[in-house]
User: Fold this.
Amino acid sequence: MSILKIYTFPNQILKKKAEPVTIFDHDIDEISKSMLDTMYISGGIGLAAIQVGITKRIIVIDLKSGVEDLSEREPHILVNPKIVEKSGATVSEEGCLSVIDFRCEIERSQKITLEYQDITGKKLKMDAENMMSICIQHEIDHLNGILFIDHLPYLKQKLVKKRLAKLAKVEK
Ligand code: ZN
Assistant:
């Protein structure tokens, strides 16, 4: 098990677009497992590879990340995830392991259909709604260099980013 460093705003790596995974080898398996460990220890429900400085299209999600009984965990590793259908709208409060001390309401599609690959490269399809759908959309955004705060209206976004950048400087 290895815990990876999570990069936080305003680190420029978070703006990078991740590359598709084409070779499904032991490395991908290792990266995914380390991402899950890192997510669990940080108390998050989702993590994208780009957040730990790896520019590959891999996301991990576990909505039961916080359960006390570890046997109840439900880890998902989604490689090369792609939304092929979406519908409805839902608003919920989001936070992010890469955006410290800030949460806000963001609108997302309520239902999505997703195509992805597992860690062996097998092509799969799944439907997701509500929290799972929101979380997948948030993580796929990361793979495209987008943070949830990028969805805020222009002026609010500017203010929030200024404040967060200032805080990040103080913490250094
Ligand atoms: Zn995030």
Observations:
- The radius of gyration is 16 Å.
- The mean pLDDT is 96.
- The chain has three helices and seven strands.
